Amino acid sequence: YLPFSLSGCPRATFAGKKGKLSGDEILNTKFKTSDVLENDEEIKQLNKEISELNESNSEMEAAMVKLQSQISTMEKNLKNIEEENKIIEEQNEALFLELSGLSQALIQSLANIRLPHMEPISEQNFEAYVNTLTDMYTNQECYQNPENKDLLESIKQAVKGIQV
Dihedral angle at the C-alpha atoms of 62, 68, 69, 70, nearest 10 degrees? Predict the structure, then answer.
C-alpha cells in the first residue's frame, strides 16, 4: 500500500507549478503603467510618421500627375513634329521632281549651245554648265564682245520656252 500524495503525481506537480506564480511573473504578464505611457508615445510617433508618409505620398502623386501631363504634352508635340516632317518630306519630293523636270528641260533646250571651253550640256556636267551660265549672267560686263553677246542671246532664246 502506497501513500498517495500530490508530490508524486505528475499532473499535480504541473498544476501546482501553474498555480504558483511569483509577484515578478504577475507584473511581467500584466501591463505596467510605464509600458502604457511608452506605447502611447510610440503610437503618437507612428501616427506622426504615417502623416508624414501620407504627405510625402500626396506630393509624389502630384509630381507623377505633373510628369504624366508633361509626357503627354511632349508626345503630342512629337506627333505634330512627325506630321510636319512628313509634309516637308512630301514637299521636298515634289520640289525634287520639279527640279528634275526643269533640269531635263534645260538640258534639252541647251543641247545645241556650246559654252566656251565646255562640252555640250549633259547630266554629267550639268552643275558645272549651270555654274558657268550663272557666272556669265552675273558678270555680263566681262562678256561684252559681240561673240559673247550673241551667245548670251542664243541662251536666252533657248530657255525662253521653259516654264518655271
Answer: 110
